[in-house]
Amino acid sequence: MTRRAARALASCLPLLAQAGCSTQLLRESGAALPAVAGIRAEFFPQREHQCGPAALATLLSSTGAAATPDALAHEVYIPGRQGSVQAEMLAATRRHGRVALVLEPQLAALLQELEHGHAVLVLQNFGLPSLPLWHYAVLVGYDRARDAVLVSGAGDRPRRLAARRFIGTWRRAGYWSFIALPPGGLPASARPARYLDAVAALEALVQPADVYADYQAAVGRWPAEPLAWFALANNRMAAGREPEAAAAYREVLRLQPGNLPARNNLALLLARRGCIDEASALLAPARDAARAAAGQGSFAAQIADSWHEIQALRATGTGCRPP
Amino acid sequence: MSIRLAAVRTVVGVSLGALVTAGFPLRVHAGMISTRAAIDAAAPAGRAANLERIDAVLARTEVRARLQSLGVNADDAAARAAALPDADLARLARSVDKLPAGGDAGLLELAGFVFLVLLLLDYLDVIHVFSHHRR
Asked: Are residues B70 and B128 in the same domain?
């Protein structure tokens, strides 16, 4: 058999699940439940090489988004490479209105998501590091006693794959996996910055209102995280909800008085409503801090621009209309 | 009449267009710092993010095993990483980022691992291999 044929055969065909062995990999990795079996997802028979579209359709169906592998093939399948690229899998998830969140490269994170009812799309490598045979599949559960994961396959039911076998193939694929979250759905494993990053990537493609529930959920889950309040404030601002945006910026500053982006944005909001004195008082310390910390991430240039804009607005003198 | 009508249509059209575009400029408020910029600014320099990346590496089974074989408890290593000053932490996180994500038994990756473990031990003051990294 030629190398190419071997690759074609192996790249998207389900391999036989190996019999469960006596090790306790799932238990050691923190599997908290005896089994996870209730995740509802639709399974699709896949054509040769098209494990990407099929796996993505399964993942999206688990979040209530309907998409067929055929439709998705146009979005993620690259015939020339007989496969789908990871970045496109994430982009396509976003195009279907779902937050695409890449998980930490740890089995524990994956198990935690499964326990919270989230299907996990994984990249596997059934070949060698030097001769990879890539495969996308969706984990929909696990069986701790048998030390196996439940994985989407060619048929209409998930099949069992020994944890040892799964971890081996997943490791050779760089421990890459991601989940799709419906509006307002929070991850079980991720920390705030990673989640907010994933929501911001979706926000760039949709209307502000479409990710409002996500940011709202983020401040509910991490009420002491300034970045979550800042993201919510910007989202409200983009939706034209200035009074609520101002309240969220003020919450950032209550948690972290030195937060320069929040000072900058709240000062601009206030100044454009004629509240020049309050805006200047807010921005003055930020201006000093940004100057002192001049360098990457200090926002010195933006804050200087804002300062000039606020002082220019002073001349127009329209009177303060507090948000 | 039809010319006037056309003119009225144009005026209405232009005004409507202006109205529609005025409805969405909120999307990009001039001068406002975006969520993306705030995340990016927080990420590379953010102490929490750096620790998160190092913790992720330390949680990897093969790294734990390697540290263990050298007599270092991985949890202790994580605690020591948490005690590093910001600049050292950022440097360590950057080094960790350059390593292959997977870490299989491929020769290059194995070399990467040995390097990583040595680097970690060096940073954590267990051994001093890369003296130029410190001081």
From this structure: yes
Q: Which domain holds residue B123?
A: 46-133
E strands present in chain A: 35-36, 77-78, 83-84, 99-102, 120-125, 134-143, 148-151, 159-162, 177-181
Cβ-based neighbours of A70, under 8 Å, separated by 6 or more: A53
Listed by start position, the domains of chain A span 3-181, 192-316
* Chain segment A281-308, per-residue pLDDT in tens: 999 999 888 888 766 557 888 999 999 9
Task: Look at the block and give the residue holding tokens 């760089």.
Answer: A174
| Beta-bridge mates of residue B104 | none
Contact list in A for residue B102 (CB cut-off 8 A) is: 129, 171-175
Distances in whole angstroms, Cα of residue A284 to Cα of each of A41, A78, A263, A276: 54, 53, 9, 12
Q: What is the CATH number of domain A3-181?
A: 3.90.70.10
Question: Which chain B positions have a beta carbon within 8 Å of A174's beta carbon?
Answer: 100-102
Partners of A139 in the beta sheet?
A120, A151
Domain count, chain B: 2
What is the greatest pairwise CA distance in chain B? 94
Of A200, A238, A296, the CB nearest to B36: A200
Are residue B53 and residue B114 in the same domain, yes or no?
A: yes
**CATH superfamily membership of A192-316:** Tetratricopeptide repeat domain (1.25.40.10)
The DSSP annotation for A19-79 comes to: PP-S--HHHHTT--SSEE-----------TTTHHHHHHHHHHHHTT----HHHHHHHHEEG
> 3-state class of B112 per DSSP?
helix
On whether the CB atoms of residues A227 and A192 are closer than 8 A, the answer is yes
Backbone angles phi, psi at A191, to 5 degrees: -85, 165
- What does the buried/exposed string (b/e) look like for B111-128 if buried means 16 or more CB atoms within 10 Å of the residue's CB? ebbeebbbbbbbbbebee
Cβ pair A105, A172 in contact under 8 A: no
A23-75 per-position pLDDT tens digit: 789 998 889 999 998 889 988 876 666 788 899 999 999 999 988 888 888 77
CB A237 within 8 A of CB A212: no
pTM for this entry = 0.70
**A105 vs B42, B48, B101: nearest CB:** B101
